[in-house]
Amino acid sequence: MSAPQSDSTALIPLAAAPRMCAVGGGSSVNRSSVVGLVGGHPGVAYPLAKAAIIGLTKTTAAHRGHEGIRVNAPAPGYVYTPVVHPQGFDDAAREQRRLTAPLATEGTGWDADDAVLFLAGPRSAGSPGLSFPPTPGSPRHSAPATPRQ
């Protein structure tokens, strides 16, 4: 996990805990990725960082739950965004990736953001320590990593 990512993921719930406790609890939502759950990424650092976020989320949820603080981390699957295209993700690669998803579709940024809104809101009050792929483009299992070119 990169230092800025691990520091902010670990420190934000710690910094917010006193204020959350003062009002009877609250919610902290970290961001992970489906590759932290199932692998299948050509690099090693990215899935390792995302798996570490999931572990930290579950541990923090267990340690802070008695204070009314829940911590969760949605792990979106395949989401096409404008950031992906310049990285060499062409239409053929998108189509191949889409076909590996259970619903044969890509997720959108809206799918991922809706999960954050749910986990931050009152409807998830009984759900601490969750990490799940909220996008229809999530793979069923670890896909073979495509080597970097």
TrEMBL record:
CDD domains: SDR_c. Residues 121-149 are annotated as: Disordered. Pfam families: adh_short_C2. Gene3D superfamilies: NAD(P)-binding Rossmann-like Domain. GO terms for biological process: fatty acid biosynthetic process. One of its GO terms (molecular function) is quinone binding. InterPro entries: NAD(P)-bd_dom_sf (IPR036291), SDR_fam (IPR002347). It comes from the Bacteria. Belongs to the short-chain dehydrogenases/reductases (SDR) family. This is NAD(P)-dependent dehydrogenase (Short-subunit alcohol dehydrogenase family). The lineage of its organism: Bacteria, Bacillati, Actinomycetota, Actinomycetes, Kitasatosporales.
